[in-house]
Amino acid sequence: MTPEEILMELIRFPSVVGQPNTAITSWIAQYLESLGVEARILAGPEGDRANLFATIGPRGVSGLVLSGHMDVVPAEEPQWSADPFRLRAEGDRLFGRGTSDMKGFLAAVLALVPTLVALKPTRPVHLAFSYDEEAGCRGVPHLIAQLPALCAPPAAAVIGEPSGLKPILAHKGKAAARVAIQGRAGHSSRPDLGLNAIHAMGTVIAAAEEAAARLQDGPLDSVFAPPYSTIQIGTIRGGEALNIIPDLCRIEIEARAIAAISPGALLEPVREAVAGLRTHGFHTSWQPIAAYPALSLPAGAPIARLLSQISGTPPLPAVSYGTEAGLYQAAGIDAIICGPGDIARAHKPDEYITRGELAACVDLLERLCTEFAQQTP
Ligand SMILES: [Zn+2]
What we know:
Order of helices and strands: HHEEEEEHEHEEEHEEHHEEHHEEH
Number of helices: 10
Distance between the termini: 31 Å
Largest sheet: 6 strands, mixed
Strand content: 15-25%
Bound molecules: zinc ion
């Protein structure tokens, strides 16, 4: 099948984040099996969704991981010109949810499989396709945890997030949490009898602002914009009416950390402020949403050198979005971002990839895998 035909099939599955994904994993597994490649469907703890892993070449040798996520963000924006889950061509552009982020990369990888099989590589190429990446990289940690049982420790991983096919060495880490504060309702004329959850959340907000302000002083890493770690509250909900003491207030908060800083640790002062409210009679909850570490690959790492030599582009120091690459790196696998399309088109109506970008990706991956397969492990 051509990359475009495969992309058409992949787009047809509305594999929206947070949903069961049996349909898309089964299709990919059947496609691989038709080429003589065994696909392992690795169910996550949710039971109804799975990662997919396949190896071309000898499992006992240190290989190269081609990594991508199968989930997409919802496509409910009314501005879509046509059905987002039906691939639509217009000139060189192929429209559909996930074309750039990142089924285009998956299609390029899958289209390359017959070539890889024929190559009989001495070092294996692994396909590692994950679920629920868009919910904060929830699926891939389960796949990474199973790697020791699946293959020899891989030498490197290419994460095909849209980067215009430029190799990228770094991104910030992230931790996010949902916070709820429960007080006691009552009539607004008697605030002395209630416990105002919005007022209480005020102290949490102040703690978050203070922690965020301190981060601006450093530590600093100039590859990132801004060069320091950040904290931000993104949502707040609370209160029913002006004449009722609000008994519930919720926020969602995130921290983004430069390399070598734990994103979860950045939220600690905020977490303490939340816990402190309990001594004032409030019930509180702190529910982690997502966490992944920063990526920071040295420009001299073998995979960085190989990719920049093949692509003819020196690696870019950093991107502002997060990926699964930080998790691979934390597992001791050199990880780099390099994929077709443009992140600016992701998560938007009329997301697209061009036929040229798709073809260039297949070409780049073919040269990368061929080079890699010939290296001595
Ligand atoms: Zn993505």
